[in-house]
Design brief:
The protein is an all-alpha fold and about 280 residues long. It has twelve helices and no strands. Helix 1 (about 15-35) packs antiparallel against helix 3 (about 50-75), helix 4 (about 85-100) runs antiparallel to helix 6 and helix 4 (about 85-100) runs antiparallel to helix 9. The termini are far apart.
Length: about 280
């Protein structure tokens, strides 16, 4: 009987190539949306108002660029595998949003056609890369550093909450407009719904508890959350101070950022201790 080939846990060259090709688009979008959020009518695929929405999307793009850069440099597939399904889901929802709100886009802008090229191709390419590279996935071994059960449970719960928010924003955008802390349109509500779908990454902690599998995803989350908090300070006038969700939003994102940073610091300390044999 022939032996089954061992899984190498390698990142395939085609996966690295896709990641490298995506990075410039994400960096360019960030460079437009975050520094100049009020100039989207001239520089972007559609006019995003208010500036808070534009900066949230820009924050996600920079986090995505960092993730794909890590994919390019990754030595083991399992260290980045957890980000592919969330990114593919986000891109799929953004592509559907483009079709649903086609008339709201600025078809005369070059940025729009770059947007179409990205979101009408990326979902298929990302899912295909994941399916192909997942054949190289290697499960954990007895010596791997694992997330504590409580931490893994909190991450899964946060991911589930994020997905619930995603469904609400995406399926019921007109209701979301009435309650959101800053002004939304149906298009920006669905955009935020697609962003919250990235919480799918948190559900992965229910199955994959290796810190080496979570490290990059926690780094990405810290980048995104920190930029969103900074955006909130820059665009504080966009918020409705009389809306309780304004303060819940601020407390929730600040608390999540602090928790993510604390988790990262503690797990890295444990990883160093394990590596040194203590």
């Amino acid at each position: 009987m022939a032996r089954q080939p061992l899984r190498s846990d390698r990142v395939l060259p085609s996966t690295r190539l896709l990641a490298a090709a995506i990075v410039p688009f994400l960096v360019l979008a960030y460079a437009v949306l975050y520094p100049w959020p009020s100039d989207t009518r001239r520089l972007f695929a559609w006019q995003i108002r208010p500036s808070m929405s534009a900066m949230v999307l820009g924050s996600v793009y920079l986090g995505g660029a960092y993730f794909f850069l890590r994919v390019v440099r990754a030595r083991q597939w399992h260290t980045v595998a957890g980000g592919f399904l969330p990114v593919g889901t986000f891109a799929t929802l953004m592509g559907i949003t483009t079709i649903l709100h086609w008339d709201r886009f600025l078809h005369s802008n070059l940025a729009f056609w770059l947007w179409v090229a990205l979101y009408f191709s990326t979902p298929l390419l990302v899912f295909a890369a994941f399916a192909r590279n997942q054949r190289e996935y290697s499960p954990s071994t007895a010596g791997d550093l694992l997330l504590p059960p409580v931490a893994a449970g909190v991450i899964v719960a946060a991911g589930a909450l994020s997905l619930a928010m995603s469904a609400y924003l995406y399926l019921f955008p007109y209701r979301a407009i009435d309650h959101w802390p800053w002004q939304l349109t149906p298009l920006t509500a669905r955009m935020l719904g697609a962003i919250f779908a990235l919480g799918l990454a948190g559900l992965g902690a229910a199955r994959e508890r290796r810190w080496s599998a979570a490290r990059v995803l926690v780094q990405v989350a810290c980048v995104m959350l920190a930029l969103i908090l900074l955006a909130g300070l820059r665009a504080h006038r966009d918020f409705d101070g009389g809306n309780p969700l304004t303060w819940l939003f601020a407390a929730g994102f600040a608390g999540t950022t602090a928790a993510a940073v604390l988790l990262y610091v503690r797990m890295e300390a444990r990883a160093r201790a394990v590596a040194s044999g203590r």
